[in-house]
Amino acid sequence: MSMFRPDLKPIVAAAIGLVMYSMPLAAEGDRLDELFDRLEGAADSRDAAQIEREIRMEWRKSGSPAMDLLHKRGRTALEREDFDAAIEHFGALIDHAPDYAEGWHGRAKAFFAQGRHGLALADLERVLTLDPRQYEAIFGLGVILEQLDRPGPAYDAFGLVLRLHPHHERAAEAIKRLDRGVNGVEL
Fold this sequence. Notes:
mainly alpha; 0% strand; TPR repeat; TPR_rpt; Ycf3; TPR-like_helical_dom_sf; repeat
């Protein structure tokens, strides 16, 4: 029995390209721009954690109470590990608000939890199309790539996370874990 292994190079290249080339195009004065500037210059992980909470609050703003309710229900289902219900709630959210990146991100998490990596990757690609700075989606991409035994692209994804969020502990740990295998050992 052969296992289907998708060619992830286009997805990784698209994610890297989106992050690298879209960041300068963001509108000046935007609240997220300010938060990302503060995150980049955060003195320590405690300051970064506060800024991260503010970024998450901005990401969660859908602009609609009905969409906020669907998002909350999806998150609650994820917390309960009721992944089928989470997929339903996030799917409804995506149907009604296809440009709301957090709906796609939530569904990607549920697909990943079910081991449905292809569907999770497709949703993560959509998240990054809508919001190239969504470092948690990039982190998720790195996790999937690492699980699919693609250490080089996973390392690159984790590096992008650290570029956006220099105090992201799990990305820093992943970089350390993958460094020797990707970059070899200095003699």
